[in-house]
Write a structure and sequence with these properties.
disordered N terminus, two-stranded parallel sheet, mainly alpha, single chain, 25 helices
Amino acid sequence: MRYKIKLIVFLLVVALLSFQSQAQNTSIAANANTTVNPAAAVNTTGPGSDFIPCTAMPEIMTLFKADHDALDRFYFVQYAPERGLRYQTLCRGYLDQLQQINFDGLPTGCRVDYLLFKRDLTEEIHQYEVEAQDYQHLHDHWFPFADTLYRLEKERRRGKKPISPQVAKAFVSISAELARLNKELNADEHISVRDIRAARGIIEGLKYAAGSVYKFYNGYDPDFTWWVPGPYKQMDSALNAYQEAFENKLNNKALKMDSSGIVGNPIGRDEIIRQLGLEMIPYTPDELIDIANKEFGWCEVEMKKASQEMGFGDDWKAALEKVKNAYVPAGDQPEAMLELYNESIAFLKAKDLVTIPPMAEETWRMAMTSPELQRILPFFYGGEEFSIAYPTNTMSYEDRMMAMRGNNPHFSRATVHHELIAGHYLQQFSCEHYKTYRHFETPFWTEGWALYWERLLWSLHFPRGPEDRVGMLFWRMHRCARIIFSLNYHMGKWTPQQCIDFLVDRVGFERANAEGEVRRSFTAGYGPLYQVAYMIGGLQFEALRKELVDSGKMTYKQYHDAVMHENNMPVEMVRAILTNQPLTKDFQTQWKFYSGPAPH
């Protein structure tokens, strides 16, 4: 009897799942206002579209994220040796679990998850190995006292009662040692930029560790409160001075190399190639620069066409000057941006290009970028919060004019949809709603998708006249230039000042905006390939669109919705899912997506 009941329940569940799958596919087709092409039906349109059920990869990835988050809350001291070792142990344990999963039995989407999850685990182990090497290289000479602070913080986490006189004595001793090391550092002319950068991170972690101990016991433990405050404040001041000495050393090295004062960290050709492999980009740095130059040449031809229509002949920089001077008065920029947003969202809806969730359309909001942040973000940026760069009363006259000229409405016409919908905010909204277990974040998906929309709306005639075309072309040239200057910089061929001059001379940047762009590229925490990712990711999405939409296998809306429903990942893996590629366990990147500039 029990067996029959179980059998009946099982059959009911199977029938229910079948009904849900059919309902989802019917709903997808209805939302697209078209019949789903059978050739494009597998893995194309989001939740419920994987016809072969797969729970193994979502489960293991969700568990890893939970374990990693738990460790983040416990091992929070940057560069502490125990932290790196613990994360390596975690990753190796999950690699072992991954080996127990039958890869050949997985559907395409889960094979993608397998390959990318394995890649990320291996890369995290590698990064902590590099961190450990840097720490060991510096520890004995420059940070012999670090073990004491790490030990005190480790004991603090479990509430061990300190022997306060010994803590005070240790802090006084560390202060004296820091004073000696500070003098030695000032006289050292041979310490490398890499060592200086690692040292700054180590000091930041040590300050946090010591502060965590002090905040925990001071005022609660009477003995600690009597003995430690003075020695702690003396040591904290000495740590700050030590950190400042490393900062000065780095700045002095930078000024000797380059007049810009921008201190970057060029990684070299070999590391660029390694990171391109991780991002599944099967091109060399030189090939990418060649692609960028070809795209730049296309832009120059189109710029001259627009310039001729504006009455400037082939002098497109004169046309660019006119466009820059079409800025709106101070105080009017938010309303001007709202007007552009309304035009772009109406355009997307009229062309039925993508599903726009009402909640996404409802919940974005504006903010103003501070003068300090405008030094590295001289244009507006977006997502759920659309932050506008425009002059404030604290800026000099020259900076105010450059900010207004660089954020004129014709420039902004190319970027409102980049930052909001169907760009970054739609991406953010979708990643929070679909396949949320995927955490494969890459700028080639994030920035590439937003840039793809700039290119698509250009081809669909979103610009209204030559001034709009000049504005949109400025940004396309800018993304080509990012590839050229960032790769040349990271290969050691260009200095930051050469990068600034290139943006001013070749693209027509305002100098302050060019300085902000280069400072952002090399000092604001972006990865070395981040600036490459805009144009290259956009070209990948464009090539995939040609493969699926231009061939008639999918509509624009089906394609765009399908991409959004798979979450953030290398674009070659999006392609693998949407075209049901036969992936193998030893997969290597191979998709040569670039076929040349668009016809004029």
